[in-house]
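Input/output pair, single chain:
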Amino acid sequence: MTRPRILIVGGGFAGLWAARTLGRMAIADVTLVDRRATSDFLPLLPDVAGGRIPSSAACWPLTAAAARFGFRFCQDDLAGIDRAARRAVGRQGEYDYDWLLLACGVEPAFHGQDALRPQLSTLSSLADAVRLAAAVDAAPPEATVVVVGGGYTGIEIATHVQRRLQAAGQARPVRVLEAAPELLGALPERVRRYVRRQLEARRIAVQTGTRVSAMDPDGALRLSDGSRIAAPLTIWSAGVAAAPWVAGLGLPQGRQGRLAVDACLRLDEHGFAAGDIAGLAVDGIPLRLGVQAAVTQGVAAARNIAALCRGRAARPYRPWDPGYIVPLANGRGCGSVMGLPVQGPPAAWLHYLLCAYRSWTWPSRRRILRGMIG
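Output:
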């Protein structure tokens, strides 16, 4: 009897946990496709850019994962998916499937400023983190570091870049631009106030209600308030969106281009989505992007695909959000865990302990814990 063919697109948290779950069941031929050779640990990328955590602790080769968990890995950049033919088309080949799991995540959103993209630094992969570290080291002494976006990642980047500069004996200004009236606008006032105090103590300037309007040929930023920042090192962290090719699937998309799924994480008769690309809503509110959601959705989608392969019914995914932490490079943080407020060094310790727990190898865990106390 022919074994079902399961195609997983994306080797991040959701895709890799799904591949692990299905590989261990050994009921199907599982193929995972990703344009990168590694599964990158996204929550640690600011630490890599800042020098707290080595790059080797923030990735795992997908070839090693495939050997360990029993699936096939193909490094390829998908151009599209023919849902009617059940075939994914990549730059290197084509991939037929019986069941599809989209776990391709999201990428930086430029909000109509795509022309600026070649001149900006981003932080959506380990390669980005390594490039950003090199750019910080190479920037001229007079360059202001400008982080566009005052969300979780933008704030982490700003503090870690400043840490890197201080370690090199440089006192370059670091500035955060946020289009909204407040930093971390979706979080409680307690968290926003704590983070703002920490940024002020580190002399990281914050400018809210301000957008980037344009970039001059000499690299200067023009802002929506009419001001100009000469020759900055600009790091873009102003939100995320689905990759452009996702729109070609002909599936309903919601906020940030995330794909609409049902309670079982199903897209259509033969497709599922998990992780950041899955726009699951509870009581009309999309679930927050995060590692815990990606991991549990990857496992739930894999189990549902396995159930359907066995002629059983899929089960609804049960969301569980243990909380969040905004970690800062000074060894402090703020957030909520299991409904309880946490801040200061204990919040940062929890962040790194959870990262170590979610890491795939013991050497990486040791490096993360050394970074926590370093």
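The CA atoms of residues 261 and 267 lie 5 Å apart. The mean pLDDT is 95.
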